[in-house]
């Protein structure tokens, strides 16, 4: 699931934030170059409607987004406060709503999309205006038979305080969060919702990091068996990231994703994978390489469907809206 509107471009203002607001298009291009996908098996994302957003967000919060100052604060792009809100809606919030709509769509396909894990029902922050993880899980609980328990494995470098606030008292959702303890957001209240908390130090490297990923992802899935895993595969753990503060190699990121998918595969649990943070231009290539590796390892694609207890990006992505036998990978 993808739409060109995912990519935010407006007079260069998007360059004032370290987040690469055009990386989704780059990932698509890389995957096309490798003949992993083509235009025939990309499903166009639909913009989330106000009715969709109200499943999680309050009316008061959505009305606040009609003020450019509020959007400038959430996205951390100060010049936005000087623009009329109709432009902010069209050039910034519409792309974010389309990305959110894509997350909702792929929730039913168990696919790959992006994430805004700092946004909760009544507040945004950290470039996150809509709570797409919360929305996806609530849509699954309400509209997909057989899904009543979810586990969030959040491996972005930052604490996922948005979904943690939203699921604070919801026993149906188990949250594992592994993050740099010293960086944004440092939300002590939200940490109360984390069932398996792994706090990392500055400069954590591959060996220690991957050991902890395997230990705690296995532990989380052994502790509670969910019907769906929402996996936040942020790439801001990459060495040199200006905001993440960790020192993980590109190969380490690819291996991390493989570890999580293998843990899910052994248990036959489907995954909704979101990509979240990553503040270097090369992260798009790393995301594409990780997807290709998952395919080569037989963890996604038609090969994964043939394995016992298969669970992958595409386990539930066989969709009648495309050509016969198509599989859909959502970015």
Automatic annotation (TrEMBL):
Catalysed reactions, as listed in the record: N(6)-acetyl-L-lysyl-[histone] + H2O = L-lysyl-[histone] + acetate
UniProt-listed Enzyme Commission number(s): 3.5.1.98
Keywords of this entry: Chromatin regulator, Hydrolase, Nucleus, Repressor, Transcription, Transcription regulation
Sample GO molecular function, one term: DNA-binding transcription factor binding
Cellular component terms (Gene Ontology): histone deacetylase complex
All residue ranges annotated as the Histone deacetylase domain in the record: 17-290
Predominant location: nucleus
Pfam families referenced in this protein's UniProt entry, alphabetically: Hist_deacetyl
SUPFAM superfamilies registered for this protein in UniProt: Arginase/deacetylase
Record text on subunit structure and interactions: Interacts with HDAC6.
Family, similarity comment: Belongs to the histone deacetylase family.
Record function comment: Responsible for the deacetylation of lysine residues on the N-terminal part of the core histones (H2A, H2B, H3 and H4). Histone deacetylation gives a tag for epigenetic repression and plays an important role in transcriptional regulation, cell cycle progression and developmental events. Histone deacetylases act via the formation of large multiprotein complexes.
Name assigned to this protein: Histone deacetylase 11
Organism: Seriola dumerili
